[in-house]
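Protocol step 6 of 9: fold each sequence in the batch and record its structure tokens directly after the sequence line. For illustration, a two-sequence batch is reproduced in full.

Sequence one:
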Amino acid sequence: MTETRTLDEFRDKFRVEELKVLENHCWTWSVRPGQPTLGAGVLSLNRHAGKFSEVTEQELKDLAELVRAIEGTIKTAFNHQIMNYLMLMMVDHHVHYHVIPRYEGIRTFAGREWVDNGWPALPMIADAQHADDPELLHHIQEKLKPGIV
């Protein structure tokens, strides 16, 4: 996997603008290009920061606001059991979270079955369910956009 070190590289890799669901002044929530579970996303800081300790107090307040919107929206859209937020930054050197909704049981969306292959343990973040359908990410994006709470 290619390392990302700049904000532009990160945003291109995760298709942040194309797959954006919601943003506030400091953060953007977008659909994750690889879907380990239905509705997985990326929550990324809108300016470059290589360490979490560089995040400001205002950015943390805006983070809390967006997290509430994410959880309410995904609950309404797909009825997740719990949400995992993974801040790994081993490859992508930019402050961001992988937002992984967790599901006990199968979900059906866009004519496809979705399974949380890691339930009830760690998420299988490398899974990319239904990657053969290039329009599926946009269907997920559209399902989430009108549900903003």
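Sequence two, same batch, same settings:
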Amino acid sequence: MKCVICKHGETKPGLVTVTLERDESIVVIKKVPAEVCNNCGEYYLNNYITEQVLERANFAVNNGAEVEIIRYAA
């Protein structure tokens, strides 16, 4: 698909690091499957992956994590 940010690149499957912040908590999830723009690096997560990422981040925050680094595993 054409990148909606840079309008020049095409996306290809790859792995990214997603960083989320809520209040005083930071959650970093590594090796998340995504479509990544070969021009600007912008990434796009599908609905299923987004659900999984948010679920893992919520779990970490709800358990009091200030900083949590997670390796994504399908």
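Proceed to step 7 once all outputs are recorded. Observation for sequence two: The chain has one domain: 11-71.
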